[in-house]
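Lecture 7 notes: from sequence to structure.

We start with a single chain of 194 residues. Read the sequence below before looking at the structure.
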Amino acid sequence: MRRICVFCGSSAGGRPDYAEATTRLGRLLAERGLGLVYGGGHIGLMGVLADAVLAAGGEVIGVIPQSLVDRELAHPGLTELQVVATMHQRKSLMADLSDAFVALPGGYGTLDETFEILTWAQLGLHAKPVGMLNVSGFFDPLLAWIDRAVEDGFLKPQHRELLSLCDEPGELLDALATHRPAPETPKWIGRDDR
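Now the structure, written as C-alpha cells:
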C-alpha cells in the first residue's frame, strides 16, 4: 500500500474522541510512509486529518469539486489538490489514486462514499481493502444493520467480509495491510463512466 483514501465528516462531530482518533490515524499514516487521499476540505474531521498528516511530514492529496472550492472549503496547504467538476468525478479519482479505503465518523457523504466503494468491491470492480475506524462505537448501529442484511438474505456472508472493522487506528492499518482479496476478484479497473 502506498496511499489510503479516507472518508470522513466535514464536521468534527460532538465528541472529542472523533478528532483525537482522526489525529492519531493521520500521524500513523505519515509514520508508516502512507500517503493520504481525501476530499480536500479544511473543515471538520477532514481538516483535522489533513493537518495531522502534514504536521507529521506526510503526503496529502485532496480531491475536491470546483463548487466546493468556490465556497472556500478547499485546504490551502496540501501536497497536491486536484479540482474536478463533479462529485462523481471526485469519488472516481479518489478511488483511482488509492490502494485502500477507511471510513471515519461522518454523515451522509461519508456513508455514500464508503458504500459506493463497498458496492464496487462486491461487483468485482476492485480488490482493494475497505475498513471502518469504529471510534467510540460510532458504527455499531450500522454494523447491526449490515449483519441483519446478511441474516435476512440481502447480503452474502462473503460480501460482509469485504469490510474490516477496528477500534484503533494502528489495528485498522494492520488489517488493511494484510487483506488478501479472493482469487476470483479482479484488480481495480479504472472507469470513466462512474
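Confidence is low (pLDDT under 50) at residues 183-189. Keep this in mind for problem set 3.
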